[in-house]
């Protein structure tokens, strides 16, 4: 019998359902092959920006939404923290959509009695961007990067290759992107520090990472546009980042137990 991992908490963000670059098939596979007590949707779950320009809603995206709703109807507590791409939903903070709670930000208590600020991260844009013109240039450059990533992986699939994030590889080597990430890490951890919390869990910049900044534990759960990543908490309160594509390429689902998942990226 297949052993499906059970997590105390799972954090995912930046799924961008409705966007042509959303890796909905990988995301659905992840959701179908794990159980969790709490599921945090850390913003940009539905890409309303993208759909306002060109409406796109494939069956796979619909299946993801149905799966999330089904989880909320069961034993999983689902908390949704809207980001900038699903900003119209921010005004419903404090309300419920069916069994899904909507919050702008939230304080998560781990099993190890650590307290983490959970937020999408767009709240810190003013501390990170250098103005509207630079932000516009950045958006256009990122669109071009995703276009390149999409066709690069189409070619790899034709040759029976596995998915690999060319976009992530390039971003890591762009000096300006690295500086923006550092500013973002400083801004988000400062918010947690101001609230006397132990750490911050966020998304927004599509860069999964675990680090300590000014004594605050910073964890970015990544995205499902480039990286297909998630953050999971085990029963003892340990936080681990998952690269779902890498793990499913290396092992069958039956081997993906909690002891193996994220072992090489265990959060401090």
From TrEMBL:
Coiled coil: none annotated. It holds the Pfam family Metallophos. Residues 8-208 form the Calcineurin-like phosphoesterase domain. InterPro entries: Calcineurin-like_PHP, LpxH-like, Metallo-depent_PP-like. GO terms for cellular component: membrane. The keyword Cell membrane applies. GO terms for molecular function: metal ion binding; UDP-2,3-diacylglucosamine hydrolase activity. SUPFAM superfamilies: Metallo-dependent phosphatases. It comes from the Bacteria. Transmembrane segments: none annotated. Keywords: Cell inner membrane, Cell membrane, Hydrolase, Manganese, Membrane, Metal-binding. Its EC number is 3.6.1.54. GO terms for biological process: lipid A biosynthetic process. This is UDP-2,3-diacylglucosamine diphosphatase. It comes from Brumicola blandensis. The lineage of its organism: Bacteria, Pseudomonadati, Pseudomonadota, Gammaproteobacteria, Alteromonadales.
């Amino acid at each position: 019998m297949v052993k499906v991992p059970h997590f105390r908490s799972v954090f995912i963000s930046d799924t961008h359902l409705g966007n042509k670059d959303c890796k909905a098939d990988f995301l659905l596979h992840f959701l179908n092959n794990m159980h969790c007590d709490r599921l945090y949707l850390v913003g940009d779950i539905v890409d309303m920006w993208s759909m306002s320009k060109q409406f796109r809603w494939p069956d796979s995206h619909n299946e993801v939404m149905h799966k999330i709703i089904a989880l909320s109807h069961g034993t999983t507590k689902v908390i949704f923290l809207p980001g900038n791409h699903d900003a119209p939903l921010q005004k419903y903070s404090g309300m419920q959509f069916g069994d899904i709670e909507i919050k702008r930000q939230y304080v998560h208590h781990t099993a190890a009695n650590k307290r983490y600020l959970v937020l999408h991260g767009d709240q810190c844009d003013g501390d990170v961007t250098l103005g509207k013109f630079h932000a516009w240039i950045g958006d256009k450059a990122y669109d071009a990067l995703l276009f390149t990533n999409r066709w690069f992986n189409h070619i790899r699939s034709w040759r029976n290759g596995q998915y690999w994030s060319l976009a992530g590889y390039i971003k890591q080597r762009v000096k300006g992107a690295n500086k923006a990430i550092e500013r973002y890490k400083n801004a988000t951890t400062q918010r947690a520090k101001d609230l006397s919390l132990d750490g911050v869990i966020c998304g927004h910049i599509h860069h999964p990472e675990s680090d300590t900044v000014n004594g605050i534990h910073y964890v970015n759960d990544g995205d499902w546009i480039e990286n297909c990543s998630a953050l999971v908490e085990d029963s003892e309160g340990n936080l681990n980042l998952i690269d779902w594509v890498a793990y499913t390429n290396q092992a069958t689902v039956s081997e993906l137990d909690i002891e193996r998942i994220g072992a090489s990226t265990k959060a401090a």
